[in-house]
């Protein structure tokens, strides 16, 4: 596993003081143990030295008293200890120190071999300490006095037999030596004990101090960590409530503040939504960098223009929201107009191109009635939409009595209902028969596919939801649903290769570059031949972008599909348009057919459309044929096909096989 870049350096930065303190604590503990062991060994060595000098005096005294030569041998054994210590001290005081000679001397003095390195280490490196220096000085002084035993011992060794006078003289000398060396030995021992206690106290203080430093460092580091964590939490909280691009509060914080404002009874607050009108042009032409810079620029300008108590937030994309606490309606309108002027006055230049900017602003007076959070947001959204609908670059105040706004709100409600209907697959297909007027009957089935919406067990006609779908761009999704499900049914009907099935297409679908690939794939899956499909497009949508519509239709005709021009006569009817559009049928709008027997103008209009269509080589279909008299009149005029209640009412479009009805298979929406 690989570590993230920078993780190891950051870990070292955080951990190094702790590692250093642990290392120092370990070193100090090791040193303390070493010093303590050395002091113990030194004290043991001092005890052996004292015992040796004491025994040497004692055995010489016994010899002087008894004349027994065995005490002389014991004297030499006892004297070997202080003499060994002396040899070791002289070896260590030499320049350079003779470590081997010192080891042999201390070994001869009776010290344990494992203790000797500690004694040598303490003597070499700490004899400069005052307490150690005094101990060694006492040792050297006492040793000097003790050395007076050497001549006495040599004289005894030289004369195997001594007289009474010599023994008294030896005893006297030994008493004098003892009187001198005993206090020196005691002082040496006392100083060594005091020094040991001092060193142990210093080591204890050092260890406690190091522990306190470790505790303080831990507390400091912990506090730093907690402070750093608080800073990170504050930063995360700021990032969670603010927009990264502009630094303004985001939608989350905006809605929290708005919810609190709505909870204040009797307050006169206002809510404002701002939507930039030409932002897409800036993004498309200048790139996202230009769009980002424009958002930053307008954020700064808007923020400077509002009151200190107001909250400006970026809600997403090019949408901004403002909460205006304690703001009268006239003040809210005045602020909105000023913000519109500020946006319009922005001179935005990017890579040498100058862009015109404006804003559509919706204002809601929250004091007019009790709003919930969602109701307030929805009202501001509707007001902003209305500002765009009325021509953009304007301020619209939300009014519940505004008829246009009420209609817009109704259409907006349909958007959510249609989305849910697509997700839940609640649309239903119906079909209506189209028959020939000459009485011979069509050689194969000819039907128009119709759409219904099922809600709460009721079927809604297209007139209830199609306007909203067209207004908010949902028609391409509905068209695809119809095509897919219609092909599914056609694929399982008898005579599917010879019939004609008309499907309505919206103007937005004519502009959809992805519809042709979708249709090819749908035809491939259903195995329905393309020539049984006849797509109906309205005259208005076709001539809105004539060249684009012609290219679209030619591409589909190349696949084998046919076309009908729907609702002909209610738009800007023109023979030129009819000649250019590659359609097979012209459908005469039912508003002329329904009253043609009572209204001579309608009769003449139907007759004219029929003649123009035939001149252009198109067959005609009359809609709303509801009586036998209308059918007879159409036959007289020479119309080719009829569609209406007299011919056949709409009925569920189901896959019929051998007289039985197979339930329509429900499919998801792409």
UniProtKB/TrEMBL annotation:
GGDEF domain boundaries: 267-400
CDD domains: EAL, GGDEF
Matches recorded under SUPFAM superfamilies: EAL domain-like, Nucleotide cyclase
Domain EAL: 411-664
Transmembrane region(s): 201-220
One matching Pfam family: EAL
Classification via SMART domains: EAL (SM00052), GGDEF (SM00267)
Gene3D superfamilies assigned: 3.30.70.270, EAL domain
The organism's place on the tree of life at top rank: Bacteria
Keywords: Membrane, Transmembrane, Transmembrane helix
Name of this protein: EAL domain-containing protein
């Amino acid at each position: 596993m690989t570590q993230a870049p920078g993780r190891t350096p950051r870990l070292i930065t955080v951990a190094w003081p702790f590692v250093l303190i642990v290392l120092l604590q370990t070193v100090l503990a090791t040193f303390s143990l070493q010093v303590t062991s050395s002091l113990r060994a030194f004290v043991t060595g001092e005890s052996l030295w004292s015992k040796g000098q004491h025994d040497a005096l004692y055995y010489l005294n016994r010899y002087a008293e008894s004349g027994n030569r065995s005490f002389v041998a014991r004297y030499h054994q006892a004297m070997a200890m202080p003499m060994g210590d002396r040899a070791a001290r002289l070896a260590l005081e030499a320049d350079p120190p003779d470590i081997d000679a010192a080891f042999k001397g201390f070994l001869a003095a009776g010290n344990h071999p494992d203790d000797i390195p500690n004694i040598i280490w303490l003597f070499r490196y700490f004899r400069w300490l005052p307490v150690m220096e005094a101990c060694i000085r006492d040792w050297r002084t006492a040793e000097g006095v003790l050395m007076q035993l050497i001549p006495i011992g040599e004289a005894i060794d030289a004369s195997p037999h001594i007289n009474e006078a010599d023994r008294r003289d030896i005893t006297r000398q030994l008493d004098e030596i003892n009187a001198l060396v005993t206090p020196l030995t005691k002082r040496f021992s006392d100083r060594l004990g005091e020094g040991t206690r001092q060193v142990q106290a210093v080591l204890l203080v050092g260890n406690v101090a190091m522990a306190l430093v470790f505790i303080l460092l831990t507390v400091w580091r912990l506090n730093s960590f907690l402070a750093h964590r608080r800073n990170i939490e504050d930063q995360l909280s700021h990032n969670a409530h603010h927009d990264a691009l502009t630094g303004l509060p985001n939608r989350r914080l905006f809605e929290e503040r708005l919810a609190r404002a709505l909870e204040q009874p009797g307050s006169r607050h206002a809510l404002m939504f701002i939507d930039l009108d030409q932002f897409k042009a800036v993004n498309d032409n200048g790139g996202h960098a230009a769009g980002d810079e424009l958002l930053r620029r307008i954020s700064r300008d808007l923020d400077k223009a509002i009151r200190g108590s107001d909250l400006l937030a970026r809600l997403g994309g090019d949408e901004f929201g403002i909460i205006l606490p304690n703001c009268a309606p006239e003040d809210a309108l005045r602020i909105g107009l000023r913000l519109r002027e500020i946006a319009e006055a922005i001179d935005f230049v990017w890579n040498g191109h100058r862009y015109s900017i404006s804003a559509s602003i919706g204002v809601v007076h929250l004091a007019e009635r009790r709003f919930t959070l969602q109701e307030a947001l929805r009202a501001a959204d509707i007001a902003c939409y209305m500002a765009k609908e009325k021509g953009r670059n304007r301020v619209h105040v939300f009014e519940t009595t505004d008829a246009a706004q009420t209609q817009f709100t109704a259409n907006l409600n349909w958007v959510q209902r249609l989305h849910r209907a697509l997700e839940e697959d609640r649309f239903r297909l119906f079909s209506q028969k189209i028959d020939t007027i000459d009485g011979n009957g069509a050689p194969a089935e000819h039907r128009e596919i119709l759409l219904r919406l099922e809600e709460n067990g009721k079927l809604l006609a297209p007139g209830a939801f199609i306007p909203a779908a067209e207004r908010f761009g949902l028609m391409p999704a509905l068209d695809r649903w119809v095509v897919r499900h219609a092909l599914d049914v056609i694929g399982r009907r008898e005579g599917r290769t010879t019939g004609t099935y008309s499907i309505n297409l919206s103007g937005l679908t004519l502009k959809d570059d992805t519809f042709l690939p979708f249709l090819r794939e749908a035809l491939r899956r259903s195995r329905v031949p393309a020539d049984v499909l006849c797509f109906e497009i309205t005259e208005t949508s076709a001539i809105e972008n004539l060249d684009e519509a012609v290219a679209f239709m030619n591409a589909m005709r190349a696949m084998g599909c046919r076309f009908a021009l729907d609702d002909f006569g209610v738009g800007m009817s023109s023979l030129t348009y009819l000649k250019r559009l590659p359609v097979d049928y012209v459908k005469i709008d039912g508003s002329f057919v329904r009253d043609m027997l009572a209204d001579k103008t309608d009769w003449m209009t139907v007759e004219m459309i029929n003649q123009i269509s035939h001149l252009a080589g198109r067959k005609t279909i009359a809609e709303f044929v509801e009586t036998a008299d209308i059918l007879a009149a159409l036959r007289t005029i020479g119309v080719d096909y009829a569609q209406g209640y007299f011919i056949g009412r709409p009925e569920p479009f189901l896959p019929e096989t051998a007289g039985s009805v197979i339930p329509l298979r429900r499919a998801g929406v792409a």
